[in-house]
Amino acid sequence: MTAPFAAGFRLHLRHGAPLDGILLPSGRCLVVEDVETGHVSAASSLEDLTRGYPDARIEWPPTTPAALLAHRRTPPWPPGRPGIDQLTSDDLDRLYGQLDRAEAAVARILTWCDELDARTREITEDPTRANPTATAVRYTLTTREGW
Q: What's the domain count of the chain?
């Protein structure tokens, strides 16, 4: 069974800035290497991707409240709390802050898709042409319920 949603991550290299990436439900993954040129690396799995980046590590985003409810994962609050109904306002503020950051990351990825489409149209001189990578990423992010 595949995961129901794509998941964003950061690939931290030994030297340089971290790269934004996305793990698709199929297990395939993409990493944006250069936003300016639209260079994206793709791999059939995370294991294949990390083979190309020695000494890199993957950072996953914090769990959101919706994911907690949907997948019944271990809650991100301290042990001993009986459940989500016992969250304090500080806990909720922290979780909503994480959700805001996730929404901002999705917005940045969608903006990058628009820029990639624009560059594709400029290169091909076809005003209706869309970049296939941008189309796939946009479809993955925007066809899920709740976006």
A: 2
